[in-house]
Amino acid sequence: xxxRTRDRLDTAPPAQTMTLSxxxxxxxxxxxxxxxxxxxxxxxxxxxxxxxxCVTAGESHALVGRNGAGKSTLVSILTGLRKxxxxxxxxxxxPAPPIAERDAWRERVAxxxxxxxxxxxxxxxxxxxxxxxxxxxxVIDWTSMRRDARALLDHWRIDVRxxxxxxxxxxxxxxxVEIARALSYGARFIILxxxxxxxxxxxxxxxxRRIDELQREGVTFxxxxxxxxxxxxxxxxxxxxxxxxxxxxxPVAELPRERLIEAMTGERGGLNVADAAARAAxxxxxxxxxxxxxxxxxxxxxxxxxxxRGEVVGLTGATSSGRTSVGEAxxxxxxxxxxxxxxxxxxxxxxxxxHALASGVGCVPKDRHHEGLVLTQSVAENASMTxxxxxxxxxxxxxxxxxxxxxxMIEALGIVAQGPDHVVSGLSGGNQQKVVMARALASNPDVLxxxxxxxxxxxxxxxxxxxxxxxxRDEGKAVLVVSSELDDLRTCDRVLxxxxxxVVQEFAAGWQDHxxxxxxxxxxxHEE
Length: 528
Fold this sequence. Notes:
The chain is an alpha/beta fold. The chain has 19 helices and 22 strands. Strands 6-9-10-3-11-12 form a six-stranded mixed beta sheet, with helices on one face. Strands 18-19-20-15-21-22 form a six-stranded mixed beta sheet, sandwiched between helices. A four-stranded antiparallel beta sheet has the order 2-1-4-5, covered by helices on one side. It starts with 19 loop residues before the first helix and ends in an 8-residue tail after the last helix.
């Protein structure tokens, strides 16, 4: 979890300040990286406008901002993938190498992206030394490569087998292998792009402890995250970008959360999310819309839950709890092995998305890039995908009708696009997620299943997406929010917690953060 981790890192070293020795060492060295007055344009659009960034040796420096703020463009310049139109980048006081000198860039900086660049079908050793394998008599020296890989992993205390297939590793282990690969080139400046997006609470604790250990060994991090609580847990400094411009850089300890959000959004106040605790109680006679009866799957067993019309129910738990699989079974994305799912009293066919749609289930899936969108198609085409059969004969919808749906959804959800013909790949992450929401709502579902609906989106997009939950609830729809984000769950009338495949506890609206987090982590706060 991330925003949900306020009490989680009590055993980790304090992240707000570096030790005195690290501070003195940092002051005696030039910045590990310094970007000065960087500007980058794409046509008439300024992706960066006079942006500066200074990262001190041995620190974790957060880079935050809404989607479209310019973070990705700045990272592409810091890693040598793009050349700035104006401004300069220096590493350790020296000018950045020419773009063509890729080895020189690798010796200075590496980025561990949210979507891993590890090749799953290769071994750990092959990934560590890809395109630079040791050669003996013209062929790869496999023995030397495995030996060098083992030595590298041992040096950085990364506990994985060098001959393990990379695809069999956990997400956490693959990230550490990527970090080791970067360090093996000589780089001591690592950019971490949303590193906790796919990790459990315990995995995040271990990653943060490892980051702190690496900092002590002279490694510097640029930490990119939409989860602001993580910034306060692991980083010493933060830089905020907004609308392609540098807004502020400051020590984390001197920038309270509300001021940080204000810098990101340009508006005062924190995240504006409706809290279900302030709502009127649901009428006792509200009809049952979703009835899940004792379903069992690969990572969950005997799960039952009910959601009435006009009710929002949260389903939370660690990544390995089975919560996502339950949500996907309800939406027809996967099939449960046993048990029954009923919508408005009628049983759903297991693993049948068209039948779920026809029965009144809409879904925002976990992975918008692979399950939620066709990135090469327009806003209108994506938004109308679930209702093509209703717009025209034999599933062929007239373009004018698709355009009408697209325009309606752009207006209803505040999608920032040039129009319904705007290709989805050209939208920011937050606006792409709004298009996924539009597709889910287009069929006017009775039951809306939202799986990690605000993952990887900025603060204002999060507000917009969660306001939809409140709106459809008022329309009398049933909503199931499957998420580990506290802000997502505050919109829920009650929250069910899953642990190791079972529903173990229920919280009414108004729950305390530490109590919910403890339940997710399997901790009994009241145990003597």
